C-alpha cells in the first residue's frame, strides 16, 4: 500500500453547506488544480489543539483514492493535510478540528490536490467536498 503525501488546496462542500456551494467557482478551481480525485476517508487523525493563525494547524486525513479525475495519482492510499481554519466550511464550530460529519470514515469526497512545495510554511484554507 503506497502513501503519497499531498496537500489539499481546495474543494467545496456539496451537502454539508449546499446553500453556499458555488458550482462555477468550484469548476474554475478544478481547472486550475493539477490533481482531482474521488477518495474515501479511511482515517481521520486528530488535529492539534489550536486553530490556524500565527502558526499553521493541520489535520491529516488518510484516504483511499477510488477514481482519478485529473492528473496522475496511483489508486491506493494517500494522506492529505487540511488546514484547520476557524469559521471555514470544513471546520467544527466549537473545537479546533475538521468537521467530524464531513470527514467521517467511509465518506467519499472530491479532492482538489497539489503536491507540496519544498518550503517550511504554507498559507491558505483547505476545503473538501462530498462526492
Kindly report how far apart the N and C termini lie. 23 Å
β-strand number: 6
Approximate strand percentage: 25-35%
Q: Tell me the structural class.
A: mainly beta
Strand arrangement within the widest β-sheet reads 1-4-3-2-5
Query: What's the mean pLDDT score?
Result: 78
Any idea what the radius of gyration is? 14 Å
Give the overall form.
globular
Q: Biggest sheet: strands, sense, closure?
A: 5 strands, mixed, barrel
State the helicity in percent bands: under 10%
How many discrete structural domains? 1
Q: Unreliable stretches, pLDDT < 50, 5 or more residues? A: 1-19
With helices defined by DSSP (H or I, 4 residues minimum), what is the helix count? 1
Oligomer: single chain
Order of helices and strands: EHEEEEE
Index terms:
131 residues; mainly beta; 5-stranded mixed β-barrel; 6 strands; globular
Structure description:
By secondary structure, the chain is mainly β. It has one domain (5-130). The chain is built from one helix and six strands. It has one helix at 23-31, and strands at residues 5-8, 35-44, 58-70, 76-83, 108-114, 129-130. Strand 3 (58-70) and strand 4 (76-83) form a beta hairpin.
Question: Which SSEs are present, and which pair or pack?
Answer:
Elements: E1 5-8, H1 23-31, E2 35-44, E3 58-70, E4 76-83, E5 108-114, E6 129-130
Amino acid at each position: 500500500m503506497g502513501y503519497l503525501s499531498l496537500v489539499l488546496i481546495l474543494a467545496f462542500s456539496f451537502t454539508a453547506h449546499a446553500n453556499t456551494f458555488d458550482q462555477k467557482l468550484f469548476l474554475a478551481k478544478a481547472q486550475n488544480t493539477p490533481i482531482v480525485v474521488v477518495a474515501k476517508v479511511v482515517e481521520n487523525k486528530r488535529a492539534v489543539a489550536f486553530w490556524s493563525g500565527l502558526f499553521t494547524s493541520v489535520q491529516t486525513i488518510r484516504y483511499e483514492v477510488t477514481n482519478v479525475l485529473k492528473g496522475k495519482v496511483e489508486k491506493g492510499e494517500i494522506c492529505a493535510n487540511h488546514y484547520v481554519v476557524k469559521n471555514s466550511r470544513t471546520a467544527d464550530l466549537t473545537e479546533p478540528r475538521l468537521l467530524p460529519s464531513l470527514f467521517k470514515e467511509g465518506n467519499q469526497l472530491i479532492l482538489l490536490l497539489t503536491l507540496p512545495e519544498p518550503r517550511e510554511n504554507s498559507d491558505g484554507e483547505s476545503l473538501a467536498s462530498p462526492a
